[in-house]
Amino acid sequence: MKRSIFVGVALHPRTTARAATETPSACEEGACRRTVDEKQVQRIQVMEDFASQGMTMDKSELVQKAKLAEQAERYDDMAAAMKAVTEQGHELSNEERNLLSVAYKNVVGARRSSWRVISSIEQKTERNEKKQQMGKEYREKIEAELQDICNDVLELLDKYLIPNATQPESKVFYLKMKGDYFRYLSEVASGDNKQTTVSNSQQAYQEAFEISKKEMQPTHPIRLGLALNFSVFYYEILNSPEKACSLAKTAFDEAIAELDTLNEESYKDSTLIMQLLRDNLTLWTSENQGDEGDAGEGEN
């Protein structure tokens, strides 16, 4: 099944045009030889260093460090800086909120991409027990990294970001983010743990969805981004294509009906997400028709 398109990052001036599922840049020669454990230790060290600096640096300095790290594509550093900003306990500005989202989206996105690659390789080595075991062990290491990152974000959301959000827009943004990161956890979870992460993801998305319908215009990019990711959750996690298509189509149609109310500032962001909604609807509809055609061949 082709992967759905989704918005996983904040609509940030430097990232809006990027594909939501873009592949991280290739590692330089030798850089990929480090094991996942070594990378994890380095990431933890970076976080600890920024945490200690955060006690002495003011917010503007940390934000500037995050911007520099983004330009250098050092997203672990960027995430660590914005984590330190968040832990100061103040409500984030729109710019700070977007920097935090972009940083962690890139950090977790690299691990999600790695996990998919290794999982695919693992499945192809079923006849070679030794290779399959190596693949399994490596996948589990990547999973541990991914889980640590997601849990870091979820802790920031529950401890600081959601409680400090005073505006409906911020509340929806953070609840959507909570739904996203529980969804990422559910992608690699199994058994009871998977059921818990799926339930938590759906609950966060649903709460954000209810607030967005009451407080935000159908054309608002955050409301549209939520509808896009919530519909992907229904399609890919709950395997509910009808609900996914219904949610995406409703969001698209409601936005189209009020397109003339869009201001110039959000026009580009909103129309981009509307295009992604339409792309997913086209993809899902064609896949479902193909499935129905296959099933129908055996009927009278």
From TrEMBL:
Pfam annotation, one family: 14-3-3
Family: Belongs to the 14-3-3 family.
Residue ranges the record marks as coiled coil: 121-159
Span of the signal peptide: none
Compartment annotation: Cytoplasm
Native organism: Ovis aries (Sheep)
CDD domains the record matches: 14-3-3_beta_zeta
GO cellular component, as recorded: cytoplasm
Protein name: 14-3-3 domain-containing protein
Keyword annotations: Coiled coil, Cytoplasm, Phosphoprotein
Major place of residence: cytoplasm
